[in-house]
Fold each of these.
Amino acid sequence: MTFQQLVRRYWNLRGPGCALAAIVLAAPLTVAAGTAEAADTSWPASVAAKYKLYFGGFEVGSYRFQSTSDGKTYATTGNAEVSALFGAFRWKGGIESRGTLAATAPKPIGYKLSFKTKSKIGSVTLGFDKNGVKSVAVLPTKPPHPDAVPVKPEHLKSVFDPMSSILVMTHDTGKNPCDHTIPIFDGKVRFNLVMSAKGEQRLKEAKPSGQPQELKICRVKYVPIAGYKPKDFAKPWVDYDGMEIALRPVPSANLYVPYSVTIPTTIGTAVMSAESINITASNRTEIAPSQ
């Protein structure tokens, strides 16, 4: 596989690694209409962050992240741009997700990913009800590959879209943030992200923020369930056991902020690294744990 083929495959965002990429793929959000239920003040009012993307040691893109919540609902939109091979490959994408907030986890209502390259445009749209995915629309329309493991109705129950999975991963529920198994459907593949603790790492701040400076390092294993081709895992181009995410605790906002994501591949390592993070807690306290 050439470098160009690898980059194209990686940034399609509809295969292995898509959820980890989605962790830092968002832009300004609009909060959906609230319900009559009391707001859950454990969810931060907003999170805004900038990330840089590196592949094989070279900077190839950037992301902007922002989330808002009124404690009852959430809604997300986002954008990203990647350029590699001296501009020979370009990828632009936008992402939207909205839903409600239960006691400890989000309940998605709708999700859409739109992307554009020099030669292709496409989108994935998902609708949810209380049981799981209720509708799927993928453009351009393409039948499932005959070698792919069929996606069955039971695979689409009690799952998250890639963006909503970020809320599951980062919300502080009082337990180890690396102790998660997150079921995800991205419109094509049903998979689990299985997280486990690897250790901690000390962080140095250019300007003291008053927040803990210990990063929680989590291993992240990609486990395909359905919608994938088994032959793609015979000689995988991604090290599915070597992916990691570093989470920074921000106790005053009940949040673990994604500080970096590392995805090893056969010809180099993809790294997403935080450039700046700004948080508004539910009590409107401003927090800047990274500069």
Amino acid sequence: MRTVDRGQRFLSRKAAEIVAQGITERQGVSALDSLSRREREVLRLVADGYSSAKIGELLHLSPKTVDSYRSRLMQKLQVNQLAGLIKFAIQHGVTTLE
């Protein structure tokens, strides 16, 4: 409210993400291209069935950090379940069914 009272614009974090996603899509950047190298690594390992603890071990991260990456991926890719992350990874060649 203070921000608005000062005459500035305020967007919640969620609203800012939606706006940023819309800009990215208009610029022709795919959802996969919007991910960082580390986010892609985490996505691949999640899709391959590794636990947060194992991913953390492999990437030298805490399991809590891995969970944060997983949550961020779900937000960026606009999926609500782990299955959505796996489907995205397969569709975009991040992993295969084998």
Amino acid sequence: MILDIHAHLTPEKLDGRAIISLSVGDEDFQFSPLLKEGSTVPLSIGLHPWHVDEGRTAQARCDLISWLSLPQVVAVGEAGIDRLRGGKLELQLAAFEMQARLADELEKPLIVHCVKAFDEVIRLHKTRFPHAPWIIHGFRGKAEQARQLLREGLFLSFGEHFNEETLRLCPLDHLLMETDESTTDIDQLYLRAASLRGMELEDLRKRVNKNIKSLVLTYE
């Protein structure tokens, strides 16, 4: 049962319950054993906005086309826009749009990293009308910001640091959970979330797992 939509690689997260995020900008990316034939650990692969620089986008697209064809790769990203860190904004936008197009072409969900750039993300979503679902990972925003994203049809993934009001209002069919880089166990996040929503823990686990299955139809 996949319960964690977005996690970074640590040994304890290789239990099949997490989608592991890899970036083509990491120096040791291509040597990861998770990319080898026969690996069954579900992955997302993208060019993180922190790794965007002049000239990298074109090469990254070629690399991504190759890696995203692997059966264990179930999502594109994390891709996105970060106004506080990473390459120039125009380069980040170009890399993000490139990966959004790939997600559409490959019919895989897009994991979105967004820091102080939700207006740009919403604008791009409105402009592109993507077929592939977009998932805002590690969402910490307030209720009104969440409502704007939900009206656009985006999914919200909640990690260790989330706004409690926002988590309570998020429709169950657009709610996801993640650990990202946190050392907190995913089960603890589900306990907190279930308590806040007044739900049975197992009911929330099953609902989120159902959402994940609906998003990553290519992963069997």
